[in-house]
Amino acid sequence: MFTGMIRPLATSKTLAYVGGLALLVGCYSLLPIWLEYSRYHDAINTPSQFHGVLSFVLGLLLVFRTNTAYSRWWEARILWGGLVNACRNLGIKLTSSDGLTDETRSRALQLIVAFPVALRCHLREEIDDETRESLELLVGRAKHIPQAIAAQLYQIVWDAKRSGRIDGDELRVLDAELLRLMDICGGCERILKTRIVKSYRVFARQCVGIFLVSLPWAIVHDFRIWTLFITIITAYFMLGLETVAEHVETPFGYDEDDLDLESLCATIDTTVHETFSHHVPA
């Protein structure tokens, strides 16, 4: 148990960063400690009531900040979980339909497994050359590649409907899953582009800063040399909550706290290929 608490400090970049900041705050606390042991100790006269009120306000701010950030992360996880199910269901329904040829099924397979990859690159606003080339071969050049892939899937379904290979009931069944693809894409874009209000984030950081600056002055009379350790521990958790909230509210990147989008894309690729392998010839 103890190892599990200490090891992340060496392996986690986020916790190591927070630990470094906490040590800096601890170094700052040496100033009031020095004054306490010097002939100027009477100069320290910070009212403890002020710090108690500030602690209450800061607690409310951090609770709201953390809950809001985590709700964004959890919503993003729900959306990508829904994407896994939508791709699986779409694959099952397309392979179960008799109105599609082997050629169109094969193309539908490529489009379905490409959609989560394209969405991942779209959310991160970066794409490697190999992935870009494969997506351009599939749907051509497009500014919004996930939308282009969804449009190609709709084209396959509507071509089958116009040629009479599927009826209106089958079209409605397939449309329900196709509609979810762009709904999920839109939900992820909303999380990406609508962060917590900047003024609130700045206000929360200011409150944390004032709290940590005033903390050693408020407790040095009571704890003396132990003020150093209490300040470091308090700063570690206060700064940790703010830093983790900052990372969690943008869950599509590469941080250790972000969603493992590569794993989710691989899961979709594996399960959809397994579904189509029984219908599409090699």
Automatic annotation (TrEMBL):
InterPro entries: YneE/VCCN1/2-like. One of its GO terms (molecular function) is chloride channel activity. It is a multi-pass membrane protein. It comes from the Bacteria. It is found in: Cell membrane. The chain crosses the membrane at residues 15-35, 47-64, 202-219, 225-245. GO terms for cellular component: plasma membrane. Keywords: Cell membrane, Ion transport, Membrane, Transmembrane, Transmembrane helix, Transport. Belongs to the anion channel-forming bestrophin (TC 1.A.46) family. This is Bestrophin, RFP-TM, chloride channel. It comes from Rosistilla oblonga.
